[in-house]
Specification:
- It is a single chain.
- This protein has two domains: 7-166, 2-Layer Sandwich (D-amino Acid Aminotransferase, Chain A, domain 1), CATH 3.30.470.10; 177-342, D-amino Acid Aminotransferase, Chain A, domain 2, CATH 3.20.10.10.
- Helices cover 23% and strands 30% of the residues.
- The chain has helices spanning 63-66, 89-102, 110-123, 199-203, 206-214, 260-271, 283-291, 329-342; strands spanning 7-8, 32-39, 43-51, 69-71, 74-78, 84-87, 135-144, 156-166, 177-181, 219-223, 231-234, 238-243, 246-250, 276-279, 295-302, 306-315, 318-321, 353-355.
- The strands form two sheets. Strands 1, 2, 3, 4, 5, 6, 7, 8 and 18 form a nine-stranded mixed β-sheet that branches. Strands 9, 10, 11, 12, 13, 14, 15, 16 and 17 form a nine-stranded mixed β-sheet that branches.
- Helix 6 (260-271) links the parallel strand 13 (246-250) and strand 14.
- 42% of the residues are buried.
- It binds 2-OXO-4-methylpentanoic acid (COI).
- 2-OXO-4-methylpentanoic acid binds next to loops.
């Protein structure tokens, strides 16, 4: 492989790896990380893999003041025959650049960054856990680094990629979650940053998330920001509804995140003869359908969340219990198929996986 000028500085002593039994989400990190810098007039330069460790930044670095930053989430899996696989990584690279464009960050060379990521994964391959439901979560992110308090795009950036062995995003694994339908706070509006993976989309939801958690909910279902009428997405995943023989998901509308798992589920269901209707769906319509006994399953999709069945929705004091808090057949089949392809247990007839080698 062409090494793209990549410099590798290996850690002298490797860290101890966690036990695979109770793997948390996102608190353990591997031996190495990837970094590359951008300087105006010079472009992206100095790609390097270095021992994992703290970053040193000027307190005036623009990331701290105006939050000009983007990130991605992807996963690597270990197969039973010892291979390591990535799931549709080119889609994450493409989305990273779309997020960069929205946030006025200069684009990266997608192929080059992917090649460097593969090198990083080869070096830290032993960190990919093997237990069912575990994987190595990959977090690429770009921060603005110019020391400058003026409001405007930074003239320097750093792209980093860190790796974290993880278990399920929602504790308890494939277990239906209870979700609060948010009626007060707003995640995004058309023309805003909702389609970009940028930090503020997530942290601006913490207040709503905290209220929801206090009342026993695992996360928040966001409605459209103007009328608080149409369903958009959950804090950490896109959302699907099985109504009789139809599967519905909110259409991409300029404020919903274009999930890689969302797209994969639409393609997979299409191949099973169960096409997904992408349309506007009002929360009131969903509760009416539920009252009429027509909502068979609800599930979320995401890189971190994979397929997460929803067992209960709470909205304005009304409670909709879905499938008696059980895992629906379709959710289970989707979970088994997606994780089967990701971990090499099932044949990848779509050509979605990339071997790390
Ligand atoms: C992902 O699914 O990778 C996400 O980025 C969602 C969340 C953990 C922020």
């Amino acid at each position: 492989m062409e090494n793209h000028g990549l410099v590798i500085e290996e850690r002298k002593e490797r860290k101890a790896k966690p036990a695979e039994g109770e793997m948390p989400f996102g608190t353990i990190f591997t031996d190495h990380m990837f970094m590359m810098d951008y300087t105006e007039g010079k472009g992206w330069h100095d790609p390097r893999i270095v021992p994992y460790g703290p970053l040193e930044l000027d307190p005036a670095a623009m990331i701290f003041h105006y939050g000009q930053t983007v990130f991605e989430g992807m996963k690597a899996y270990r197969t039973q025959d010892g291979r390591s696989l990535l799931f549709r990584p080119e889609m994450n690279m493409k989305r990273l650049n779309k997020s960069c464009e929205r946030m006025s960050i200069p684009p990266i060379d997608e192929e080059k960054v992917l090649a460097c990521l593969l090198e990083l994964l080869r070096l830290d391959q032993e960190w990919i856990p093997e237990a069912p439901g575990t994987s190595l979560y990959i977090r690429p992110f770009v921060i603005s680094t110019e020391p400058n308090l003026a409001v405007g795009p930074s003239r320097s950036y750093r792209l980093s990629i860190i790796l974290s062995p993880v278990g399920p995003y929602f504790p308890g694994g494939l277990k239906p979650v209870t979700i609060h339908v948010e009626d007060t706070f707003t995640r995004a509006v058309k023309g805003g940053t909702g389609t970009a993976k940028t930090a503020g989309n997530y942290s601006s939801g913490y207040r709503a998330q905290a209220n929801a958690k206090q009342q026993g909910n695992a996360d928040v279902l966001w409605l459209d920001g103007i009328e608080k009428k149409y369903i958009e997405e959950v804090g950490s995943m896109n959302i699907f509804f099985k109504i009789g023989n139809e599967v519905i998901t909110p259409a991409l509308n300029g404020s919903i995140l274009e999930g890689v798992t969302r797209k994969s589920v639409i393609e997979l269901l299409g191949s099973w003869g169960l096409p997904v209707t992408e349309r506007k769906i009002a929360i009131e319509e969903l509760f009416d359908l539920h009252e009429a006994g027509k909502v068979e399953e609800i599930f979320g999709t995401g890189t971190a969340a994979v397929i997460s069945p929803v067992g209960e929705l709470n909205w304005r004091g009304k409670k909709a219990v879905i499938n008696q808090h059980g895992i629906g057949d379709l959710s289970q089949r989707l979970y088994d198929t997606i994780t089967g392809i990701q971990s090499g247990r099932l044949e990848d007839e779509f050509g979605w996986t990339v071997e790390i080698g």
